[in-house]
Amino acid sequence: MHFSQRIRLLGCALLLSLGALTACRATSVEPRAAAESGFDPVVIDALTLRDRLAAGEWTAESVTRAYLARIAALDDAGPRLNAIIEINPDALEIARGLDQRLADQGPVGPLHGVPVVLKANIDTADAMATSAGSLALADYRAQHDAFHVARLRAAGAVILAKANLSEWANFRDSNSSSGWSSLGGQTRNPHVLDRNPCGSSSGSAVAVAAALAPLAVGTETNGSIVCPAGANGIVGIKPTLGTVSRRGIIPIAHSQDTAGPMARTVAGAALLLETLVAMDTGDTGVVEWPGGAPGFVPTTPVTRLDGVRIGVYRSYYGAGQFPRVEAVYEQALSHLSELGAVLVDPVEYQPPEGRGDPQYTVLTWEFKHDLDAYLSAAGLPDDRDSLADLVAWNAMHADTAMPIFGQSIFEDALAAGGLDSPEYLAARDANNTHMRKAVASLLAEHELDAIVVPVNGPAWKTDWVGGDRYRFGGTSSLAAISGFPSIVLPAGQVMGLPVNVGFVGAAFSEPDLIRFAQALEQVLPARREPAYLPTLEHDTP
Q: What is the model's pLDDT at position 355?
């Protein structure tokens, strides 16, 4: 369905109450389900799907139709998850072309025929907009694919849709509601619908959790992959900073921004990572993988972790306050011991006192610089081609662009200075350089292969007035600020809501983290499919 059909009429979107955009969407003709026997989007993992597509057992067209049908049934209708902001109108044509190519020459590449959803802050040179969820960019279409999108196409992926997100990747206002955008409305957690999906890659995570797509690309500055992965009970990988190109992604800050994979299994996320990691000399912050990027999918299932040294992180936000959540973490630790890992318990990091908030300084100052550079090159109208213009545009359209929260972060960033200023350089040293040294020191001091962390507690109720309510976890900063990689995976449930654990390692340790996560994945409680409950009877974690 074309973007204009998804929104139906922009005026309709503008007149919405604080509910989801789906109420105003045009009714679509539900696509046919897949014809091949045995194909079920709910139970097929991405690796199996890839192998059967490449073998010709299933066609890309039928698989694409099956996912489009599921989007129609769950996102547009049924529980109305509101994860998808826009369908690629060319998806079926792309899939048919891949089927013909398979018949004539064999598979295009390692993702031949596999549907992938992209976060709506990622450029695609097609009929879909790159909106960041903002009404200001509702009609903006990029002239070029993002670098990693071009790689996905070359690998044979079907770019299926773009996902809703926290507007401007949750960097517009300090009182925002994760998963809400002025263009896309509020994304809902598929496990319990009145719960928040976390952000900013909320739609990407919900799309994977509800099997609207087998794979999705999210982006993260601090927690925007790992938090929605945790809240929705899927796997997410935040790669080593600079190993996945940021070119063609609406930025927040180059010191921490990255794209990364989201999937239902560790192997699925690793499969997508293999295409995403690549040298891009057009990204000024690129980091070349030593010796060339490896294959990230383990060739044989990992079943033991004998001798692997893993540090147990205890100084997380909310420690000691949520016994049922902490019991899930303790169970994961017990399983790691049973797998043969040596647990070093605890390893601690305490942030320095008296330094204010250097991360906020780094992010706001870089945001002004990076966003202005992106917008000025995008060919946008004169009233939307800089951060200053966007602040003015939002104020002029406040009733529709800012109905539930404002733009305090935009305004703070607008007041920021240049990136050569002593204030910015001191903040970057106190933030990114300090964290990189601190995490590296923890790993070296205890001779650790990784640090295991709790990721999240049960998702909070979405509250448009009060904003987000983070009560547990807060461990994403270890990897996000240092630039080191992390992987998170489902570890259990509390009150029917997912709880994840994760691993953080040194730069370029993704292959090891994937092995550790895959071994743990085999022994943890099986991931539960979403129940689409309207609400919970009890609310005590």
A: 58
